[in-house]
Design a protein that fits this description.
With 332 residues, the chain is of the alpha+beta class. It has two domains: 186 residues, Fructose-1,6-Bisphosphatase, Chain A, domain 1, CATH 3.30.540.10; 125 residues, 3-Layer(aba) Sandwich (D-Maltodextrin-Binding Protein, domain 2), CATH 3.40.190. It contains seven helices and 17 strands. It has an eight-stranded mixed beta sheet with strand order 4-3-5-6-7-8-9-10, with helices on both faces. α2 packs antiparallel against α3 and α4 crosses α7. The longest helix is centred in the first third of the chain and has 22 residues. It is globular.
């Protein structure tokens, strides 16, 4: 081990003085999420050996088939966070309603998470991840639904854990974006990517499910045509279909990820991706890294949610590419 290697817990403790709201309970909360991610990483890595691949036979609140690892990841995070007295409640993409820990009378935070984003790719061994978001309660010791229905701009911290060829945690507390890679021999996350910024002279990458092209409006089609045909140097298409994996690649290399609104989603009139569990956390990260995120009309972080499972179109990546997308989407 490099004697200059920085462990995640040490990094958080050393950086804690920068956080105006941070006390020991905030550090412990991040540590609990880290513990949960290690447990999930372990199960993901041995999934094919212990018969936890495949579907449960149930649907989640989104109307999607639930993978066995979805359930496992969701239960793991709930069980760990329910034991933390500083957490007043949690909301998950997999549950219809938030869970309130009403006996946590000194709670200061609530946590929202997508326990296993990209889970439809589990059976084919594609990179997947956990996405999380932390908010300060409006009033210590009291929690209501309104503590969850907040603009992304109010997040204290957000991050994701990528389960791929290595397990990597990327997070921000509003003081830059930092990446830590799990060293399996130590069982510790080690600082591997300090102060991540999305490259200005980035690779020209666009990520979108282009099979939906015929379902997009004319402005969206013109935007895609620009990236594929009209740009001075056409963009390369890179689309995995696992949001965390697509976002992580573009964060490090540069590019734009898009999930437009399409008219075949009549049952999902606001889009497909979830504002609270996916768009907001990643938007906080991309802004801290020098990029931008929008739903095509307004900044993702400025959207006031009306419901806990609200969906929005998402365009996220380099500011330059987001500006181009916005011009086309708004017909200018």
């Amino acid at each position: 081990m490099n004697n200059k290697a920085v462990q995640l817990q040490h990094y958080i403790l050393n950086e804690q003085k920068k956080f105006p709201y941070a006390k020991g309970d905030f550090t412990l909360l991040l540590s609990d999420i880290i513990i949960g991610s290690k447990i999930i990483s372990r199960e993901v890595n041995k999934a094919g050996l212990v018969e936890i691949l495949g579907l449960t036979g149930n649907e989640n609140i989104q109307g999607e088939q639930v993978q066995k690892l979805d359930d496992y990841s969701n239960d793991t995070l709930i069980n760990i966070l329910s034991q933390n007295q500083s957490v007043g409640g949690v909301a998950s993409e997999e549950m219809a309603d938030p869970i309130y820990f009403e006996d946590h009378t000194e709670a200061r935070y609530c946590v929202l998470f997508d326990p296993l984003d990209g889970s439809s790719n589990i059976d084919v061994n594609v990179s997947i991840g956990t996405i999380f978001s932390i908010y300060k309660l409006k009033k210590d010791g009291e929690i209501t639904e309104m503590d969850f229905l907040r603009k992304g701009r109010e997040q204290l911290a957000s991050g994701y854990i990528l389960y791929g060829s290595s397990t990597m945690l990327v997070f921000t507390t509003g003081e830059g974006v930092h990446g830590f890679t799990l060293d399996p021999s130590l069982g510790e996350f080690i600082l591997s990517h300090e102060n991540i910024t999305i490259p200005e002279n980035s690779k020209k990458i666009y990520s979108v499910n282009q099979a939906n092209y015929r379902f997009w409006d004319e402005n969206t089609k013109k935007m895609i045509d620009y990236f594929t045909k009209e740009a001075e140097k056409p963009f390369s298409s890179r689309y995995i279909g696992s949001l965390v994996a697509d976002f992580h690649r573009n964060l490090l290399y540069g590019g734009i990820f898009m999930y437009p609104l399409d008219y075949k989603l009549k049952e999902k009139p606001r889009g497909k991706l979830r504002l609270m569990y996916e768009a907001n956390p990643l938007a906080m990260i991309i802004e801290q890294a020098g990029g931008s995120a929008t739903n095509g009309k307004e900044n993702i972080l400025d959207i006031k949610p009306n419901m806990i499972h609200q969906r929005e179109p998402l365009y996220i990546g380099n500011k330059e590419y987001i500006d181009i997308a916005m011009k086309y989407l708004n017909g200018s």
